[in-house]
Structures are given as C-alpha cells and as structure tokens.
C-alpha cells in the first residue's frame, strides 16, 4: 500500500517558486501532501488504487469496515469559503471506516492546531493518525502532516479526483448497468495515452494537471488567453516529465487547437472568489472559450469525448447542452473528491511513517 518517502520535497502553497522546508532540529519533519509534483507516478497510482478500493468497499460490499482512526483528531482549516471540499472531507472522515474527531480552526492558527491534534512527536514517540487539512495555508510551521485542500498554486485533491474519474470511465465503472470494476484494473493500464484538453484560465487546477498528467503518460493540451497562462515553473516540470514518458504537452491560445483529438475536455470557472470586480474584463478576455458541442466539432475532438469541471460551473464556461449531456462526468468527479481524500488521509495518517 502507498506510503510517502521521507524526507519529501514539498512546495510552497503560494507563489511561483519552490523551496525546501527544513525541519526543526529537535523534532522530525512531517510529511505533507501539498502537490502531486512531489509524488512519483507510482505513488499517484497507488493513491488511485486505494481510492477505488475505498469506494468499492463502502458502496458495493456489505462487509463490516475497520475503523483505523477511531479516537484520532484532525483539524480542518480554511482561509477561503468552501462547499464541495468541506463536504467531501467531512463525509470522508465520518465514513464508518474512519470515525474521526473533527476540529475546525480559523486560518493562521497552524501552530495551535498542530498542538491540539498531535501529541506523539513532542513526547518522543512516532505515533501517527493526527494531522491538519488546510486550505490556503503553508506547511512550514506545522509539526504534523498537512494535506493541501486548495491553494493559489496547486490543488492536488481535485486532480486525484479527476484522475480517478478518468480511470473509472476507462473501466466502464461509471456506467449504471455495469459492476464497479475500477479496483480490478491498475491505472497504469488506463491513463497513459489519454488526451486531455484544458480550455480556460491558467489557474491552480491547470498547474496541478501540468505537474501530474504528463508524469503519468497523459497527453495534455491547454488553451489559455494571453495574460492567463500557467506558471512557468510548472510548465517546465510538465515538459521534463513529458520527455521521460512520451506525453505531449501543448500550450496555445486557440481552443480549437487544444481540443484536437481530445478524449476529455476540461475547464474551470473564469471568475473565482475575489475576482468579481474583474468579471467584465475576464468575460471579454475569455470570449470563444466556452465549451460547446460546436467547439469540439470544429476542433476535431474524438467522437466519444467526455467533459469535466471541478465546479461551481457558470454557463459562460460550458453550455447546458454539454454540461447536462451523457458526455459530462462532473457529478461522478465531484463524488470522487470524497474517495480520493479518504485515500490521502489513509496514506498519510494510517500508513505513514513520521
């Protein structure tokens, strides 16, 4: 089963540069999940295998679940408003397999929260099972493992959900009449060779796609307007990974070029929280970027192309015909936030070594 290496190169949550976080000389350095850039392809695969197994066990079997985290505590910290992430996290923690105690903390209280949820290391033991679930925070001050729930630069749990959804789609596990079989096939067999197109803002979702998909052998083409391109360092990571795996990485400003031969078309909101004052300018800048059947036809997407969006969706990003069609995977994608979050917690807090 998946376990993270120690020490792990982590990346700051905010900003374009990356750097190592050094542990205190008096205590071990915690292992964090801040971005999939820090994981190998094999480690990402194992998280997906674990996610599929958790989903299958919870939804498709009657066997009594274990409760490996009964009596443990995890703090959930948000500096931005959250609906899907918070619901997915709390439902994952409330799953009968885990039974967590949950403590909510305001942002900026990492050191206090760490003391409330982690006692073992400070007393010289290597206990594990406590940690922080943080949105928009840095890990440098934490003495316990942190899972990045979203930051300005990266969104690893969303990409895990997207990758699980792609894997399930490839194994026909999303078809209502089919038995769930995603846990029977390794994602190294289903993901390499897929062609994913991104049409939209060069935001944290695209950054995370760039540092994960080419590493897995997934071809990635991204169309972003001028002035909305992804961070240069993640583009460099993507190109280096693509050279090793044979995955193609294309950056363009033309949506039709990005969707050519695409198996999956992905977008996100163009006007996020805090950007409302820029809405009219952004809508003008993103003219022609709406996902439609006509765009897919003009660009030459594969006949069976699928659509994904991390939500919340606005009509200017994708029209109703696509969003509510059989091509749309957005609702399984949203559900899979729960199962991939569960796998990340299992990896760091149950099977980790701290």
Automatic annotation (TrEMBL):
InterPro entries: Asp/Orn_carbamoyltranf_P-bd, Asp/Orn_carbamoylTrfase, Asp/Orn_carbamoylTrfase_sf, Asp_carbamoyltransf_Asp/Orn-bd, Orn/put_carbamltrans. Keywords: Amino-acid biosynthesis, Arginine biosynthesis, Transferase. Coiled coil: none annotated. One of its GO terms (molecular function) is amino acid binding. GO terms for biological process: citrulline biosynthetic process; L-arginine biosynthetic process via ornithine. Residues 51-71 are annotated as: Disordered. Residues 193-345 form the Aspartate/ornithine carbamoyltransferase Asp/Orn-binding domain. Its EC number is 2.1.3.3. It is an enzyme of class 2 (transferase). Pathway: Amino-acid biosynthesis; L-arginine biosynthesis; L-arginine from L-ornithine and carbamoyl phosphate: step 1/3. GO terms for cellular component: mitochondrion. Residues 32-93, 138-168 form the Aspartate/ornithine carbamoyltransferase carbamoyl-P binding domain. Belongs to the aspartate/ornithine carbamoyltransferase superfamily. OTCase family. This is ornithine carbamoyltransferase. It comes from Jimgerdemannia flammicorona.
